Predict the 3D structure of the following.
Amino acid sequence: MLNPSQRAQAVAGSEKARAKGRRGRRRVRPATHRDWVVEPLEPRSLMSVSAVGAEVRVNTTTTNTQRESAVAMDDSGNFVAVWSSKVGASYDIYAQRYNAAGVPQGGETTVSSTAGDQRNPAVAMDADGDFVITWWFLNGSNYEIYARAYTANGSPRAAEFRVNSTISTALRRNPSVAVDSTSDIVVFGWESYQGTKFDVYGRRYNALTGSFTDANEFRINNTTTRLQQNIAIACDDNGSHVVFVWDSDQASSGKQDIYARRYDATTGTFPANEFVVASATNKQVSPSVSIDVDGTHVVFAWTSKQTGNYDIYARRYNAVTASFPAAAVTVNTTTSSVQDDTSVAVDSDGDFVIAWDSNQSGTYDIYARQYDPSGTAQTGETLINTTTTNTQLNPYVATPVNKDFVVVWE
């Protein structure tokens, strides 16, 4: 797996990523002037990884702020990065495609075309490279969720469209998206403040026909007391095993735990109610989730303050049998500092990599650790970024079926 002398890197301005149908999100940090670069990694065996080429800045526009990036990858290792960029007084959504060698395919393109703030993009890519981007849009006084679907060559299938079916002044934010292997099943998720609290909502879409499978959005959480937020989604290859994850203080005010719920996107049904992924003293927040091709290997990762410091935890799950093979484990080995902003990616064999940021050296850097399908660590924590001046934050990782992966951070 990762060799400490072999580093992958990418600087990004964002809070999300997707690995094999998954997109995680995390808290937004204050904006500064940011650019970001990306470097893909070549196919790995269990004990080695090599970076492919040097780091490359993704955004060609370097004025103002570039932030809130996300990344998604297809089965061949081609990938697309998205981010929000400040243009004038507002933000727009941009995208840049790459082939598996990390060579840009065309230039950066504008995704959103409507005037007004467009923020917090997320992206999901199917097996052949078709992809869907989603973001929130301040439409007058309404915060709404928008999306746009693309073919593998970067051509938009149609204009951007509104995802949420309920139109009101409710605050909607932090969208997520996952796709099956062909993009005929697209699952959106977001959090919405309707009334007195946030709940998490979803809706299905068919990118091939350009139509919604669901006439209306549906609520994901079945417990409606207190706060539900920070949703992430993972989807297997045929859409029958979708996993939503989020954090909630429903058990105790002021103490978030991690919850998840299974969903069958082929039938539009929940097999069961939500379940607890992690519950402990103090906070468990900002979950990430990734899944393999058939749903047998699911990995949750999150930030926890259960020991007093913020650490990174992970837990494996089988969505087919609806069971946890083992208890949660601590990912980071250095525990004397803040570990935060985690992202996880699972490949087709069930191997997985977890990335996070840490201030253990005095400033924030990006670290990662890799595991085999049984959850056995294959490396210690490894420094990812080679540029160690200033601050490196918010890593996101994506992987296809052939064991390449990409890490981005700001």
